[in-house]
## 1
Amino acid sequence: MEKRLYNFSAGPAVLPVPVLERIRDEMLCLPGCGASVMEISHRSKQFIAIQDAAKERLTRLLNIPAEYDVLFLQGGSRLQFSMIPMNLLRGQIGPAQYVLTGSWGKYALAEAKKEGATEVLYDAAATNYDRLPNDGELKISPDAAYVHITSNETIQGVQFPNDLTSPAPLVCDSSSDFLYRPVDIQKYGLMYACAQKNAGPAGVTVVVIRRDLLARSSDQLPGYLNYNNHSKEGSMWNTPPTFAVYVLGLVAEWVESTIGGLDAMYAHNQKKAKLVYDALDASPSIYLGHARKEDRSLMNVTFRFPTEELEKAFLDGAKAHRLDSLKGHRSVGGIRASIYNAMPMEGAQTLADYMRDFASKHA
Ligand code: PMP
């Protein structure tokens, strides 16, 4: 079989090999089912068990209390950019406050503006989105309908290291760092994540929502866009993306059983990121990191080179080491190494070794 690359894609992204093997093994015949997961009714007892198990695993991993619901939706995080203000802002008195630490937060704001009053609480535009607000810099209004943050800005590579405390419901786009560390979910009103970075394949988006917020959704909303319908019907208001939910459940199982839970996952992620950032910091004249040091993402390492030639040489040389998909997002260029949960330690080590070697040859 062709050898797998070290895949640093920002998403869809690397999946754990044991999960891929399990999918392969169960592809034709899900145990006890006589068919693949893609061929059975979402209302079959086998699929209901799969979806329930996925939900239970997320509930255990994130310590989600009973006052929250976990929804499996479609439309990606982009649809959440609209669904959130449609459900939580329409009809509210206070505005939705947005914290802009990168591109995705800006996209989220653009959609919210269509639904109601918004305010920008923080905008790192002046420093080209290289940082987070400093301690005490966010003045969240208790009267806000909600405050929206992006816990990890996938393009710029800046990440909130802790859970914020907010007097208004905190809404968090956790698309690119879902399940990377333990979180205090009770600090959030709503957390959402498309699966295709840290938690599974494209096609399913997880929404963890505090149940009291469901009361805000108007019956006038189009059915699919109303969180209540999904909550009341156990994410079966329409046909859920069954294959994606199945894989999401397997990834959650891998995090829980193979890795040992989110504390262990976090330790693993910290170690991987340190390997790469240490190599970057060792050669500051070659690697120009984008994010302010204290705000660096453990998921997406972003940097540039002093010249275009060096960048090209770096990317060309990376191929020989089976290091793949390192090109930065088309909007910002440079290099982006996405080291999500499923990136093995040896992938991060191989990248770090290559970075050190490349720097010594081009210093
Ligand atoms: N938010 C963040 C932080 C993302 O990284 C992405 C995808 N790159 C999105 C939102 C959009 O997700 P989707 O493509 O699933 O709509």
## 2
Amino acid sequence: MKRRLFLTLIAAATATSASMIAAPVAQAADEVKIGFLVKQPEEPWFQDEWKFAEMAAKEKGFTLVKIGAPSGEKVMSAIDNLAAQKAQGFIICTPDVKLGPGIVAKAKADKLKMMTVDDRLVDGSGKPIESVPHMGISAYNIGKQVGDGIAAEIKKRGWDMKDVGAIDVTYEQLPTAHDRTAGATDALVAAGFPKANIVAAPQAKTDTENAFNAANIALTKNPKYKHWVAYGLNDEAVLGAVRAAEGRGFKADNMIGIGIGGSDSALNEFKKPNPTGFFGTVIISPKRHGEETSELMYAWIKDGKAPPPLTLTTGMLATRDNVSQVREQMGLASK
Ligand code: GLA
């Protein structure tokens, strides 16, 4: 009797210790946790990125941790927090590209894989940190699409270019923003638009309110133009300029604003019964930036396959007349 009990106990103990050893290993292999940090969680573009990242998480079966990180401090504590939760990697759109070396060091110290999206980190001398895989938009070319679209519409309306002012909502500290507006400026000038009529309107932050303030100054200082056009790094920048122009009586007939993005800020504008000065947007892909980056990070963690060092995505110009077709073509229709 005694011996039987003893053997049973041994067997139970062996089974328990075996499962205790086996369990954490199996969990570590199976449970992938990925952070997705964005600089402006309130902006529709980033909401869309998160939505598509969630789709990847559902499909692949990993846990997605969404974190709004609008400051350097928030980024640093979020990375530590992810490490504490046993995440293996994260994707980030940083609030400031100059935080680059600090973020890289923090991720390394916490042994987390990292990939950037939208805004590419720079080193101390302002050069992109090429060791961190990145997915961004082909900023200069997309800016050119904006400029070409504005020039085509000016011509269609038969405006004399000398009577047209251009509000260039700038945010020079962000390289992708610089490249986008530079592309738009170059395309306009190439189409015959007078360079002297382009008014730089630097915004303090990349949101509608700051663009509105910047555009108001540009409008006040240049009362001589009969018509206006506007461009900037995203839809929010152009919406700010459009609202400022409206305030001074430049409505749809006298304003051509083309943004970049194609998320709700633009879609809501197109849904208004009457057209506004927000004429169009170059739709870019939150699906690729949210879903594909997450899948790449997942494959990196799971199979050790690192993402491509640099992926640049494209966009398509849409106006209120063809926005549905363009979204369909870009695989965004079911949103
Ligand atoms: C930057 C902008 C966003 C969006 C993304 C797209 O992060 O601030 O509004 O345009 O780029 O990559």
